């Protein structure tokens, strides 16, 4: 079990510790979009290929996971656990990072932040369907409204930039990435009570290693890559795919999952803010306004969902 040093701060209640640690985790996750864009570059100035960024970061996370599993002396998962682990790995280790990396070559990190802001709400929808929970009409209405806002934003942004075909394709990839991550998260949640969050995080990355390692070798860059692109790659492999998850799960455990989980709504705003100094992006009112609208819808939808 990893015990972040932040939990040793004296004078703070468990809830306050959980909130601060959750905020720190969201800052780490917020850097994922800008760092991925930094690693892949753009269509006009490409750097690392999305394939290498995806499978390479998975190899980095798997290496760290193997070391932790050995230190923990963790036993192999039981036979019944392998199917959810494989599905979670396909969604969180391969599907989401790959679709995100490809899309970020065509759109800005701020643009992607609006689409991926739907992730908490889509995860709640997938969980409701998987666990056969009866959600309220208001919850489903918020889910439909959030999706509609993303579609309207895609159309409005396309008209704004006069490059509709490219952005429509990238938005399709981002929506598919959100769906893949949601399915992976729910499958991981099925195993968390049995294996523990830390072991689930580790095994999900290790399960993908037979696929990620050879594909990372095959997609190794054959041209010179900038130092900033390698820095972005190192970040998403070490923090986005691994350390940030431990901080987030620990925050939920210490401060209470229902209350601390609301901090997740700040992630798209962190992504937008970090994209300004790291990538030189500018925040326009169209993107910021739709982000606020989507996050508000997600917040209301989560409030209307079943706490289970």
TrEMBL record:
Name of this chain's protein: DMT family transporter
Main location: membrane
Family: Belongs to the EamA transporter family.
Residues spanning the signal sequence: none
One Pfam short name: EamA
SUPFAM superfamilies xref list: Multidrug resistance efflux transporter EmrE (SSF103481)
Localization per record: Membrane
Segments traversing the membrane: 20-39, 51-72, 84-104, 110-131, 138-160, 172-193, 200-221, 227-248, 285-301
Lineage: Bacteria, Pseudomonadati, Pseudomonadota, Betaproteobacteria, Burkholderiales
InterPro entries found in the cross-reference section: AA-Vitamin_Transporters, EamA_dom, EmrE-like
